[in-house]
Amino acid sequence: FRSISMKKIYIDYDSTLVDFIKPYLKKLNEKEKIELTHKTYKRKENEMYIKSNYDLMKVGDVYEEVEVFEGAIDFLNELRDAGYVLEVITSSMSGDQKFYKKEHMERNFAGFFESVIHARKKFPHTKDGFFIDDKLSNVEKHCENNETIGFLYNHKGLHDKDIGKIKELNKRKNFYYVESYSEMLNIINKKPTKVYESNQSLRKNKIK
Known about the structure:
The protein is 36% helix and 14% strand. It is an alpha/beta fold.
């Protein structure tokens, strides 16, 4: 696969740098009088709540309550200091959401990103750099179609992930599953050989 010395990194926004799900779940739980969490809201038994309240995810002003993940700013500073060009690649569910997301980005990440790409299909835009995203299918498509490394990011193991699918994807030389920014920096900076034992998050989840 292409050398890890590439100096461009494409980074997803929601659930990769910021906790978009927390205020969404707050609204959903209040409306339905339930107690879904980051780990449980996508489970099959909760599908009806998500489908019947899909419009809640499109609301733009939710970004007024969206928090930046702990360590995200330090992570971006480390990458920038190492000479990486950073670009956000994100998708929005409505024009309203796109507007509020832009304002949120300007308030919290001013000066970090060379550009912001809005795209549902991300892999055609990420050919010339590393790619970081919380959505498994996005990282899978990147790794299938591009030679550069794709990171599936699950901040502090906050969300349930398809461990079986991750185990399958981990056979690819350009795929990494990570649960912390420090682990990602370690992979980027130390340029390790792709061995399963070197990946802390995989080891924790007993993926071999």
